User: What shape does this take?
Amino acid sequence: MNSTNKVIGFTLIMTVFVAVLLTGLREVTKEKAALNEEIFNKRAILMAVEKHLPDGKKVKDLTDGDVAGIFGSNIEQVGLNMAGEPVEGVLAEDIDMAKERKKPEADRLLPLYVYTQGDQKFYIISIRGNGLWDEIWGNIALEGDLSTITGAAFDHKGETPGLGAEIKDNPGFGTQFAGKSIYDEQGNYTSITVRKGGAKDPKHDVDGISGATVTGDGVTEMLQRGIKYYEPYFAKLKSNI
Amino acid sequence: MADTSVKDTAIGVEEKEPLFGKKERKLLTDPLSDNNPITVQVLGICSALAVTSLVLPSLVMAVAVIFVTAFSNLFTSMLRNYIPKQVRMIVQLVIIATLVTVVELALKYLNYPVYKQLSVYIGLIITNCIVMGRLEAFAMANKPWRSFLDGIGNGLGYGAILLIIGVIREVFGKGTLFAGTGIELKIIGPNADFLINTTESVLFGWYTNNNLMVLPAAAMFIIGILIWIQRSINPKLVDIS
Assistant: This one.
């Protein structure tokens, strides 16, 4: 065989072999991988209400089946438009926050998870913003009064490990949010501020992470803007009560 | 094909290669110090800077690279007599990329949280010069078993340096060890709970985390110092001129 034919023949066989191998492998693992991803995302949402899980369990103690069970029985999923109206046929878990951010503000959809435990209701909202290097996001759980935060969990795409990444890695950062309020006593929207050098206002500030000022400011901005998106819906809920 | 296999066995019978002879052991131990891929060959620096801010990602990266170097060496060596010279680099790249994709799919299937944490690093393996360097320098000219050992040896040499850097950076940058795993230890600084913890003072209680250590630049300094130390104590590497 001459050398050009050999090269072509070899690459052709190799390409077909590798393509078939990888496609086959992907097809075989696809379903389980998608399920894993779904459970992973649902766990992230439950992190925000970790204090109120059934039987006082922690999220990491839940099996995949438990997570699916809680979502089936305790959680109601709502997709909201920017006017605060529920959109028919849209589940919160189908809303991709990363894609929503690219849309014009008025067209965005907002995911809302209403978690019921006993006679208590918690409203879990999702927010997304920019950290120092890349996107950051989080889930915030509000108590039934729609003002007090009961838990918050954050994640990030590429913040510096040991600095900005502490918003996820250091459990102490998220737990600070519990008990804070997003409205002041007059009912004005204040959101929560991540304060460099330590919280000043016990109701509306949390301690920043030293060395991660930009990420902290990103979290503040994300909270400020992200929670406000849900205000029209909250207003409706409050007027109904 | 029949020709080469006959030739291979013929040589094998003549030499009677042991599974773990002197040469084979040397293949495993040489890259650990005398011919270390990072400190002597200065390969794979990019990922050594990127992933070593904590011990856990360093460890996982090391394991992944050992797997990929070992098996890409093995497969390349098995194919070495058939790979056309003109396209050998492309073929090597395809082998590496295929293996990395297999690792990625397997992680997605088996352990999604770990996949999520490492997704960026997994892609980084493809760009790791050590893998390609070993294929070109060793596997193309040696038999499968030896190539496999050479891959493991170089992976280990790379991993050892990664772990050393990871430990130094995590301890001095964060005051902890194994953060992100179940056995996180707070070693130095205030609130250290591992080493000597008398009632009066904690060991190095005055220590404030060094934020430089968290940044990739610190790894550059550490690698430099490691090279310096190695070159002064290893007689084989002393530069006579």
